[in-house]
Design goal:
single chain; 82 residues; mainly beta; SH3 type barrels; five-stranded antiparallel sheet; 2 helices; 5 strands; 13% helix; DUF2187 domain-containing protein
Length: 82
């Protein structure tokens, strides 16, 4: 995973350019150097061409809002109660 890739996680809201227009969307899945983004558009041509999903190179993404990341669960010491 590259340093650029490590900045983003599934669920993050990101901004990107598509066909000269700015869009925002949410990361659905990560690949080696890109992400699958779900987005909405009011342009019928964009909707018809992309069906509200697009793969964007991670270097072309801008973070808008990070998704909450689960904290690693601390290991609890189990004590025997006798």
């Amino acid at each position: 995973m590259s340093a650029d890739q490590a900045k983003f996680h599934v669920g993050d809201e990101v901004g990107f350019k598509l066909e000269g227009s700015d869009f925002t969307g949410f990361i659905d899945k990560g690949y080696n150097n890109s992400f699958l983004i779900t987005f909405e558009s009011s342009d019928p041509e964009i909707i018809d061409k992309y069906h509200n999903k697009v793969v964007i190179n991670n270097k072309q993404l801008k973070m808008i809002k990070a998704a909450p990341q689960p904290d690693p669960e601390p290991e609890e010491d189990e004590e025997d109660s006798k």
